[in-house]
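Friendly challenge for the regulars: who can give me the C-alpha coordinates for this chain first? No prize, just bragging rights.
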Amino acid sequence: MTSRFLIIYIFLFPTLVLAENSIIAIVDQDIITTNELNRFFNKSPTKAEKLQTINLLIDSKIEGKKFKDLKITPNNKLINIELTKIAKKNNITLDDLIKASNFQQLLSNIKYQISKNSLIDLVYQDSLNEGSEISDKVKIYEEWFKKLKANTFIEIYEEKL
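First reply, four minutes later:
Bragging rights claimed.
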Protein backbone atom coordinates (compact mmCIF):
# COMPACT_ATOMS: atom_id res chain seq x y z
CA MET A 1 0.00 0.00 0.00
CA THR A 2 2.75 2.45 0.96
CA SER A 3 4.73 1.82 -2.23
CA ARG A 4 1.60 2.41 -4.34
CA PHE A 5 1.05 5.73 -2.58
CA LEU A 6 4.68 6.69 -3.19
CA ILE A 7 4.46 5.88 -6.90
CA ILE A 8 1.25 7.88 -7.25
CA TYR A 9 2.84 10.76 -5.31
CA ILE A 10 5.90 10.76 -7.60
CA PHE A 11 3.71 10.86 -10.72
CA LEU A 12 1.38 13.55 -9.40
CA PHE A 13 4.06 15.76 -7.84
CA PRO A 14 7.31 15.05 -9.70
CA THR A 15 8.68 18.55 -9.19
CA LEU A 16 8.46 18.17 -5.42
CA VAL A 17 10.46 14.94 -5.55
CA LEU A 18 13.02 16.22 -8.07
CA ALA A 19 13.36 19.71 -6.60
CA GLU A 20 15.69 18.34 -3.95
CA ASN A 21 18.31 17.60 -6.59
CA SER A 22 17.78 19.91 -9.52
CA ILE A 23 20.29 20.95 -12.13
CA ILE A 24 21.78 24.32 -11.22
CA ALA A 25 24.52 24.55 -13.86
CA ILE A 26 25.60 23.01 -17.15
CA VAL A 27 29.26 22.81 -18.16
CA ASP A 28 29.52 21.62 -21.77
CA GLN A 29 27.75 18.26 -21.51
CA ASP A 30 28.17 17.87 -17.75
CA ILE A 31 25.85 19.09 -14.98
CA ILE A 32 26.10 20.43 -11.45
CA THR A 33 23.22 19.60 -9.12
CA THR A 34 21.97 21.07 -5.87
CA ASN A 35 23.10 17.91 -4.05
CA GLU A 36 26.62 18.35 -5.40
CA LEU A 37 26.62 21.99 -4.28
CA ASN A 38 25.13 21.31 -0.83
CA ARG A 39 27.91 18.86 0.08
CA PHE A 40 30.15 21.89 0.62
CA PHE A 41 28.02 23.57 3.28
CA ASN A 42 27.28 22.78 6.92
CA LYS A 43 24.99 25.79 7.34
CA SER A 44 22.69 27.71 5.01
CA PRO A 45 24.95 29.54 2.58
CA THR A 46 24.29 32.93 1.07
CA LYS A 47 23.61 33.21 -2.65
CA ALA A 48 27.09 34.70 -3.10
CA GLU A 49 28.67 31.70 -1.32
CA LYS A 50 26.67 29.33 -3.53
CA LEU A 51 27.77 31.14 -6.69
CA GLN A 52 31.40 31.11 -5.58
CA THR A 53 31.20 27.36 -4.94
CA ILE A 54 29.42 26.75 -8.26
CA ASN A 55 32.28 28.54 -10.03
CA LEU A 56 34.79 26.29 -8.25
CA LEU A 57 32.76 23.24 -9.31
CA ILE A 58 32.66 24.54 -12.89
CA ASP A 59 36.45 24.94 -12.88
CA SER A 60 36.78 21.43 -11.48
CA LYS A 61 34.54 19.99 -14.22
CA ILE A 62 36.54 21.76 -16.94
CA GLU A 63 39.85 20.57 -15.50
CA GLY A 64 38.49 17.04 -15.06
CA LYS A 65 37.48 16.95 -18.71
CA LYS A 66 40.98 18.10 -19.69
CA PHE A 67 42.50 15.36 -17.53
CA LYS A 68 40.44 12.81 -19.47
CA ASP A 69 41.13 14.38 -22.86
CA LEU A 70 44.87 14.40 -22.23
CA LYS A 71 44.80 11.03 -20.45
CA ILE A 72 46.30 12.52 -17.29
CA THR A 73 46.15 10.06 -14.41
CA PRO A 74 47.86 10.41 -11.07
CA ASN A 75 50.88 8.22 -10.45
CA ASN A 76 50.34 5.73 -7.58
CA LYS A 77 53.82 6.44 -6.23
CA LEU A 78 52.99 10.16 -5.93
CA ILE A 79 49.67 9.34 -4.27
CA ASN A 80 51.42 7.16 -1.68
CA ILE A 81 54.03 9.86 -1.04
CA GLU A 82 51.27 12.42 -0.35
CA LEU A 83 49.34 10.02 1.87
CA THR A 84 52.50 9.27 3.85
CA LYS A 85 53.18 13.00 4.29
CA ILE A 86 49.65 13.56 5.59
CA ALA A 87 49.89 10.62 7.99
CA LYS A 88 53.25 11.85 9.35
CA LYS A 89 51.98 15.41 9.71
CA ASN A 90 49.05 14.14 11.78
CA ASN A 91 51.16 11.68 13.81
CA ILE A 92 49.20 8.64 12.66
CA THR A 93 50.09 5.54 10.68
CA LEU A 94 49.23 5.17 7.03
CA ASP A 95 46.88 2.32 8.00
CA ASP A 96 45.03 4.62 10.42
CA LEU A 97 44.74 7.25 7.71
CA ILE A 98 43.29 4.69 5.31
CA LYS A 99 40.72 3.68 7.96
CA ALA A 100 39.57 7.29 8.46
CA SER A 101 35.94 7.97 7.57
CA ASN A 102 36.87 10.71 5.10
CA PHE A 103 39.71 8.78 3.44
CA GLN A 104 37.95 8.42 0.07
CA GLN A 105 37.39 12.18 -0.12
CA LEU A 106 41.01 12.79 0.86
CA LEU A 107 42.22 10.32 -1.76
CA SER A 108 40.03 11.96 -4.39
CA ASN A 109 41.43 15.39 -3.49
CA ILE A 110 45.01 14.12 -3.70
CA LYS A 111 44.41 12.51 -7.10
CA TYR A 112 42.80 15.70 -8.36
CA GLN A 113 45.68 17.89 -7.15
CA ILE A 114 48.32 15.59 -8.63
CA SER A 115 46.44 15.58 -11.95
CA LYS A 116 46.13 19.36 -11.85
CA ASN A 117 49.85 19.73 -11.18
CA SER A 118 50.54 17.51 -14.19
CA LEU A 119 48.24 19.67 -16.32
CA ILE A 120 49.98 22.83 -15.09
CA ASP A 121 53.34 21.29 -16.05
CA LEU A 122 52.04 20.37 -19.54
CA VAL A 123 50.64 23.85 -20.14
CA TYR A 124 53.88 25.41 -18.91
CA GLN A 125 56.01 23.17 -21.13
CA ASP A 126 53.83 24.00 -24.14
CA SER A 127 54.20 27.72 -23.44
CA LEU A 128 57.99 27.38 -23.25
CA ASN A 129 57.98 25.48 -26.54
CA GLU A 130 55.99 28.34 -28.07
CA GLY A 131 58.58 30.85 -26.83
CA SER A 132 56.62 32.38 -23.96
CA GLU A 133 58.34 35.23 -22.14
CA ILE A 134 56.48 34.46 -18.90
CA SER A 135 58.33 32.18 -16.47
CA ASP A 136 55.66 31.88 -13.75
CA LYS A 137 54.00 28.45 -14.13
CA VAL A 138 50.86 29.41 -12.21
CA LYS A 139 50.36 32.65 -14.15
CA ILE A 140 50.75 30.82 -17.47
CA TYR A 141 48.25 28.19 -16.33
CA GLU A 142 45.73 30.79 -15.14
CA GLU A 143 45.89 32.62 -18.48
CA TRP A 144 45.52 29.34 -20.38
CA PHE A 145 42.63 28.23 -18.18
CA LYS A 146 40.85 31.58 -18.58
CA LYS A 147 40.87 31.06 -22.36
CA LEU A 148 39.74 27.45 -22.00
CA LYS A 149 36.87 28.48 -19.72
CA ALA A 150 35.84 31.27 -22.09
CA ASN A 151 35.46 28.67 -24.85
CA THR A 152 33.38 26.33 -22.69
CA PHE A 153 29.58 26.33 -22.70
CA ILE A 154 28.51 27.29 -19.19
CA GLU A 155 25.01 28.04 -17.99
CA ILE A 156 24.11 28.74 -14.36
CA TYR A 157 20.48 28.72 -13.22
CA GLU A 158 20.67 31.34 -10.48
CA GLU A 159 16.91 31.27 -9.94
CA LYS A 160 17.31 27.74 -8.51
CA LEU A 161 19.70 28.86 -5.80
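Residues 5-10, 12-18 have pLDDT under 50 and may be disordered. The chain has one domain: 2-160. Your move, everyone else.
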